[in-house]
């Protein structure tokens, strides 16, 4: 499990530790960790060319001390000073170790010429980015932005703590930011390293322990070893493994129903009950004879004819007409966990606030699985604002809507109401950005809810498995390059993804 803490918590833990350590000891721990990762990446240090991007804060200090360590082992180190104020002891140490310095004035002049710094930096083997760390705020200013634009293309880039230009707390990137191959982060992950767009700038993240004593994390991310599902016992019958009810599809959209039912079946449901209008039912029955189906008349008021279920999935391809409204109402008025997706969310977004609040105020858990556009409609917010500030919005949505909210995206986030850590799913892949994959996900999470998993876990584990399945579908053989996948490929790769999980936990 990866833990990430807010800047505020990191600063408090640092202050507490620094009070007990000799002056500068913590920075030396950070610099030693950074230098050792760089040395490992370079393999041979003697004669290699290292460029330090040095900002005006302690992040720059880390880079200078790490550069001095590399210089003492034979590397040719140059520090580009991007601020008129520089960590003095760090700079003195680099000079003492034989490092070269490109002063602020010279750098300013260089960056203002036509070719910028590109020519001067040519031949660099490794760049250490020490412009901003947890103290970085907003778009890069001054020399920082043009410097980042002029980085040598062939060099490996190692970010110190956080890629400069990425907001450590949120992953927001305003304008320019360093694209790192590796980020060496200190003490704990920062939320911005796990959440896009920041996560996509961080490359491989290496954690260096500097001895911080940290409280509860703000964001967590699972590895596959953390995804533990209940084990079906020898005496488990289909009811104990969980019966999922799927309410999906309309005359306009039929495929979503097939995919959602398939997601539930491949996700390990003991049984899937499916209900919709007759033509959709026929299609689902044709593809999944194992599903138990019910044709509902368009004016059906109750879900009683469908039979007893342990969780409902409502929404994929449902349309937003009066029938869709009745089905969403009926599912949410039940006493079992409900997942609302796609058109189900649009139905909720179209309701008056008091009506929606009343429906979502239920004893059993509710999971909502919007993408940014659907969440924007639900919260009355701007889609681009949701994309840029995903963490804040998913937290707010969970609290305001009183439900577990899974916000889809290249890093899918899961938040539950209250002060719990938000989960960032790291298995996502661009291959998942294709029509119908969301329908598979809703069926899959429905199966996990029906199996009795708490809502946040069902959503988190569902997202993990779904991403893993997409990766396996895109590249079944890791030696081959990945190929585009369809939602159906993701569906049929779910069993392979499930086989990668650790041995299931006993209930
Ligand atoms: N504390 C500790 O014990 C330890 C801390 N450690 C290290 O310290 C780092 C935190 O250091 P920090 O607090 O000095 O902040 P930092 O990230 O260097 O940034 C501040 C500088 O950046 C500038 N700046 C900001 N935004 C900017 C922008 N958009 N565009 C341009 N400039 C911008 C800002 O300028 P100003 O706003 O003051 O003009 C200021 O000069 C942390 O990430 C870790 O690496 C480790 O050694 C372990 C021990
Ligand atoms: K940095």
UniProtKB/TrEMBL annotation:
EC number from the UniProt entry: 4.2.1.136, 5.1.99.6
Residue sites binding K(+) per the record: 59, 129, 164
Keywords: ATP-binding, Isomerase, Lyase, Metal-binding, Multifunctional enzyme, NAD, NADP, Nucleotide-binding, Potassium
Binding site residues for AMP: 408-412, 438
Residues covered by the YjeF C-terminal domain: 221-501
Catalytic activity of the protein: (6R)-NADPHX = (6S)-NADPHX; (6S)-NADPHX + ADP = AMP + phosphate + NADPH + H(+); (6S)-NADHX + ADP = AMP + phosphate + NADH + H(+); (6R)-NADHX = (6S)-NADHX
Cofactor note: Binds 1 potassium ion per subunit.
SUPFAM superfamilies registered for this protein in UniProt: Ribokinase-like, YjeF N-terminal domain-like
Matches recorded under Pfam families: Carb_kinase, YjeF_N
InterPro entries: Carbohydrate_kinase_pred_CS (IPR017953), CARKD (IPR000631), Nnr (IPR030677), Ribokinase-like (IPR029056), YjeF_N_dom (IPR004443), YjeF_N_dom_sf (IPR036652)
Binding annotation for (6S)-NADPHX: 58-62, 133-139, 144, 161, 256, 317, 371, 439
Co-factor(s): K(+); Mg(2+)
Domain named YjeF N-terminal: residues: 10-218
Complex formation: Homotetramer.
HAMAP family the record matches: NADHX_dehydratase, NADHX_epimerase
Role noted for this protein: Bifunctional enzyme that catalyzes the epimerization of the S- and R-forms of NAD(P)HX and the dehydration of the S-form of NAD(P)HX at the expense of ADP, which is converted to AMP. This allows the repair of both epimers of NAD(P)HX, a damaged form of NAD(P)H that is a result of enzymatic or heat-dependent hydration. Catalyzes the dehydration of the S-form of NAD(P)HX at the expense of ADP, which is converted to AMP. Together with NAD(P)HX epimerase, which catalyzes the epimerization of the S- and R-forms, the enzyme allows the repair of both epimers of NAD(P)HX, a damaged form of NAD(P)H that is a result of enzymatic or heat-dependent hydration.
Family from the record: In the C-terminal section; belongs to the NnrD/CARKD family.
Name of the protein this chain belongs to: Bifunctional NAD(P)H-hydrate repair enzyme
Organism listed in the record: Actinocorallia aurantiaca
């Amino acid at each position: 499990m990866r833990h990430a803490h807010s800047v505020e918590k990191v600063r408090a833990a640092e202050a507490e530790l620094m009070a007990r350590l000799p002056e500068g000891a913590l920075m030396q721990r950070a610099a030693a960790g950074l230098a050792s990762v760089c040395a490992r990446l370079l393999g041979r240090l003697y004669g290699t060319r290292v460029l330090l991007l040095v900002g005006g804060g302690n992040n720059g200090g880390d880079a200078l001390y790490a550069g001095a360590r590399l210089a003492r082992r034979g590397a040719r180190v140059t520090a580009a000073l991007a601020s008129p104020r520089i960590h003095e002891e760090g700079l003195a140490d680099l000079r003492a170790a034989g490092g070269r310095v490109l002063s602020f004035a010279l750098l300013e002049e260089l960056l203002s010429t036509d070719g910028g710094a590109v020519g001067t930096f040519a031949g660099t083997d490794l760049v250490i980015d020490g412009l901003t760390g947890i103290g970085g705020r907003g778009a890069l200013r001054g020399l920082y932005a043009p410097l980042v634009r002029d980085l040598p293309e062939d060099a490996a880039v190692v970010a110190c703590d956080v890629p400069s230009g990425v907001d450590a707390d949120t992953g927001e990137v305003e304008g320019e930011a360093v694209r790192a191959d590796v980020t060496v982060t200190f003490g704990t992950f920062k939320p911005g390293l796990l959440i896009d767009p920041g996560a996509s700038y961080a490359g491989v993240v290496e954690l260096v322990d500097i001895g911080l004593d940290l409280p509860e994390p703000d964001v967590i991310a699972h590895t596959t070893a953390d995804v533990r599902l209940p084990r079906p016992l020898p005496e488990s019958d289909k009811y104990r493994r969980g019966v999922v009810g799927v309410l999906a599809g309309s005359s306009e959209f039929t495929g979503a129903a097939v995919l959602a039912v398939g997601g539930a079946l491949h996700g390990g449901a003991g049984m899937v009950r499916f209900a919709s209008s007759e033509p959709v039912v026929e299609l689902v029955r044709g593809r999944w004879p194992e599903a138990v189906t019910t044709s509902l008349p368009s004016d059906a008021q109750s879900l009683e004819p469908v039979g007893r279920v342990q969780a409902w999935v409502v929404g994929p391809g449902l349309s937003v007409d009066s029938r869709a409204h009745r089905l969403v109402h009926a599912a949410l008025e039940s006493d079992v966990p409900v997942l609302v997706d796609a058109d189900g969310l649009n139905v909720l977004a179209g309701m008056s606030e008091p009506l929606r609040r009343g429906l979502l105020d239920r004893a059993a858990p509710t999971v909502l699985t919007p993408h940014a556009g659907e969440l924007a409609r639900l919260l009355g917010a701007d889609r681009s604002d949701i994309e840029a500030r995903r963490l804040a919005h998913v937290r707010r949505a969970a609290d305001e809507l009183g439900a577990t909210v899974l916000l889809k995206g290249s890093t899918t986030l899961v938040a539950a109401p209250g002060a719990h850590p938000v989960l960032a799913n790291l298995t996502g892949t661009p291959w998942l950005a294709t029509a119908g994959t969301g329908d598979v996900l809703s069926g899959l999470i429905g199966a996990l809810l029906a199996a009795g998993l708490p809502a946040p876990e069902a959503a988190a584990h569902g997202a993990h498995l779904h991403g893993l399945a997409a990766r396996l579908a895109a590249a079944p053989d890791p030696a081959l390059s990945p190929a585009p996948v369809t939602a159906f490929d993701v569906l049929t790769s779910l069993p392979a993804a499930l086989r990668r999980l650790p041995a299931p936990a006993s209930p």
